[in-house]
Every structure is written in structure tokens, then in C-alpha cells.
Amino acid sequence: MFLRPLLDLFFPPLCHVCRAYLPPGGAEHGLPRPFICHDCLAKIEFLEAPLCTTCGIPFATEGGASHTCGACLQHPPFHTCRSAAALDGPVRELIHRFKYRDRPHLSEPLGLLAFPRLEIFLKDFAPECVVPVPLHRKRLRQRGYNQSQLIGEVLARTLGAPQQVGNLCRWRWTEPQTGLDAGDRVTNVRGAFGVRDPERLAGKRVLLVDDVLTTGSTMRACVDALREAKVAAVAAVTVARGLQP
Ligand SMILES: [Zn+2]
Ligand SMILES: [Zn+2]
């Protein structure tokens, strides 16, 4: 792109978080830039090893090798999961604006921020299709877009895998999970999801995408629906993960 340097000169890009001017520059990690300044980047807690190789929960200890956590050993889940960053600081702020302040374009910085941190996991898994966690049509009307689908678009484009929208569905209206405890969250979303056309997913390696992981109950309910559709494997990724204190 010859235009970009010229555009940067007249309209210097701003940091999506703090609106500071950014120095001109090209791609990072071979990807378009997420347009987040150094100071804001430094405040982001990216989730790194050691973590559970199955569910991706980071271990509190410094150093050491990643391994399977006790909970995953006891009840091995069907899917593996990773999140790029802790739901805190600039990431929390961006996601809040993205979801609740009508800023769909923030899927770009969030997706581009997450991708390099999930890249090894994603390439190891080698998904054949990307499936976003669906919204109920009532919520979709309220918000105007499905934030997980927009993040999924960035990941699908970067991975070169197609995104399948509208097949995994949220049949049943559920109360927002915010404010519910872990047990209520599981009951709230149980059986809320289903697959319209299982044949389009059967035997496939599916990458399930959501913006935030809290207790994982929404993710598990989606994975149950995908399993019923006889997918070969599911890996789930989110931009952020709420870490319980
Ligand atoms: Zn900034
Ligand atoms: Zn685990």
C-alpha cells in the first residue's frame, strides 16, 4: 500500500485506547498494526506460560512448564481453550466500548492484538472453519452486530479459514451472564444453543470464537451443541479472560 504512509503523514493514526498520536510505521508481525500505543500495550497482561495446556487457565506460579490442570485431569473437556489477555486495563476498556458503546470497528485492534498471542495454538490446531458464539436475535437487534462474529472475521481472514455464521444458533433467550454465579451461569445457558445444519460441521475441526471468557459456561454450552453436530474437534479462543481473584 503506497497510500498508507501518505495518509499517516496527514492523518497520523491515534491509539485506540488513549488517543495518543502513533509514530508512522508499517505492519507488525506481518499483520496490519492494531494501533495501540506502547504505553497502553505495556499495561496489557497477556496470558503466557505456564498455563493449562487444555483449558488455558494461567498458573499463578512464575516460570515452570505448562501442564494439564487438576480440573481438566479430573473431567477432561472435549475442547481446548486459550485467551490472549486478562480482562483488565486497556483490554477491558476496549471490549467495553466495542460491546456497549456501538464501536464495531474495534474488532480490528482487538483481533489483531489477540492473533499473535494465539498464533501458535491456532496454527497447531489448524481449524477448518471458524464459528462465532452466536447472539440471540433479540440481542443482535439491540446491539446491531455480533461482537464475536466481528472478532471471528479478523481471525478467519488472518488464518485463511472460512467463517461459518448462522449455523450454530442461540435458540433460547438467556439473561445476561453478568451478575450470575458460576452455577447459575451453567443453568442459564444449558440447551440454549443448537446447530441448524449439522452436516456442514460434521467431521470438521472447529475454531469457536468469543470476545470474553468468564466461567466458560457459554463456551461449554456451545461446545455441547457442536459435539452433537459431530464435529471432529473444537478449539475455543477469546480475546480476554476474566481471572477470578
Ligand atoms: Zn495508548
Ligand atoms: Zn485446565
TrEMBL record:
<dbReference type="InterPro" id="IPR051910">
    <property type="entry name" value="ComF/GntX_DNA_util-trans"/>
</dbReference>
<dbReference type="Pfam" id="PF18912">
    <property type="entry name" value="DZR_2"/>
</dbReference>
<dbReference type="Pfam" id="PF00156">
    <property type="entry name" value="Pribosyltran"/>
</dbReference>
<feature type="domain" description="Phosphoribosyltransferase">
    <location>
        <begin position="157"/>
        <end position="242"/>
    </location>
</feature>
<dbReference type="InterPro" id="IPR029057">
    <property type="entry name" value="PRTase-like"/>
</dbReference>
<feature type="domain" description="Double zinc ribbon">
    <location>
        <begin position="6"/>
        <end position="73"/>
    </location>
</feature>
<protein>
    <submittedName>
        <fullName>ComF family protein</fullName>
    </submittedName>
</protein>
<dbReference type="InterPro" id="IPR000836">
    <property type="entry name" value="PRTase_dom"/>
</dbReference>
<comment type="similarity">
    <text>Belongs to the ComF/GntX family.</text>
</comment>
<dbReference type="InterPro" id="IPR044005">
    <property type="entry name" value="DZR_2"/>
</dbReference>
